[in-house]
Amino acid sequence: MTGTDRLRQITEAVCEAGSLGVAELARLTGASEMTIRRDLEVLAAQGVLQRYRGGARSLVLRGEGPPFALRSQDGLEAKRRIAAQTAALIADGESVVLDSGTTCLEVARALERRRVTVMPLSLHAVNALAGAPEVTLLVPGGHPRPGELALAGPLTQASLAALRFDTAIIGCCGLNATNGLTAYDLDDAAVKRAAIASSRRVVAVTEAAKLTRTALAHVAPVSALHAVVTDASAPEEETARLTAAGTVVHRA
């Protein structure tokens, strides 16, 4: 088990139980108690849990996604393939609104040498594109959510409403033909809807695992998506449903 996998397993176990002791987590993961203590310190620094003597309690609410710092290294190679495929769909000279999230951050990195106009919806992606010589960078208003640094609120929505983009690249927490594109956070869902409304074309980017999930907040039906870019392990049955709904599915 990699360190990232172990951190994810610890996060999920503590979230499910509410709190767990070091000895219990060591048995669960097969790691030493010393390793578990170090992992708990890492997760506490990320705001995922709160340490107490002999264990930890969760600070992640049920129904929330894992924290950004943990997700950023999860499935990184697949995210980079998705990002490269997505960047290939963007023509030079296009204007792009780029959603928040770890997969969209990799898309930002894939676009940094392209001649495009980009408005990222997270400060992580703004930072990734800040030194890109060919990119015309637009920075929206709004307040950044801790950890995610995703921009949200009325200033973000007003920034989106004032512009018209060629393409919106949208991340998600869940996507399927039945429930459409969904997000965990209501403010995030509102920003995604505003980005979609301001764009001529909509491309959703997602790892294959999210094609079987539905999150709390509905963003858009599948019919609003012109294309979906996912990885090669995407289930055939679900991609067939997306295709039947009129969405072009690209596997990276």
Automatic annotation (TrEMBL):
<dbReference type="GO" id="GO:0003677">
    <property type="term" value="F:DNA binding"/>
</dbReference>
<dbReference type="Pfam" id="PF08220">
    <property type="entry name" value="HTH_DeoR"/>
</dbReference>
<dbReference type="InterPro" id="IPR001034">
    <property type="entry name" value="DeoR_HTH"/>
</dbReference>
<keyword id="KW-0805">Transcription regulation</keyword>
<dbReference type="InterPro" id="IPR036388">
    <property type="entry name" value="WH-like_DNA-bd_sf"/>
</dbReference>
<dbReference type="InterPro" id="IPR018356">
    <property type="entry name" value="Tscrpt_reg_HTH_DeoR_CS"/>
</dbReference>
<keyword id="KW-0678">Repressor</keyword>
<dbReference type="InterPro" id="IPR014036">
    <property type="entry name" value="DeoR-like_C"/>
</dbReference>
<dbReference type="InterPro" id="IPR036390">
    <property type="entry name" value="WH_DNA-bd_sf"/>
</dbReference>
<dbReference type="InterPro" id="IPR037171">
    <property type="entry name" value="NagB/RpiA_transferase-like"/>
</dbReference>
<keyword id="KW-0238">DNA-binding</keyword>
<feature type="domain" description="HTH deoR-type">
    <location>
        <begin position="3"/>
        <end position="58"/>
    </location>
</feature>
<keyword id="KW-0804">Transcription</keyword>
<dbReference type="InterPro" id="IPR050313">
    <property type="entry name" value="Carb_Metab_HTH_regulators"/>
</dbReference>
<protein>
    <recommendedName>
        <fullName>Lactose phosphotransferase system repressor</fullName>
    </recommendedName>
</protein>
<dbReference type="Pfam" id="PF00455">
    <property type="entry name" value="DeoRC"/>
</dbReference>
<comment type="function">
    <text>Repressor of the lactose catabolism operon. Galactose-6-phosphate is the inducer.</text>
</comment>
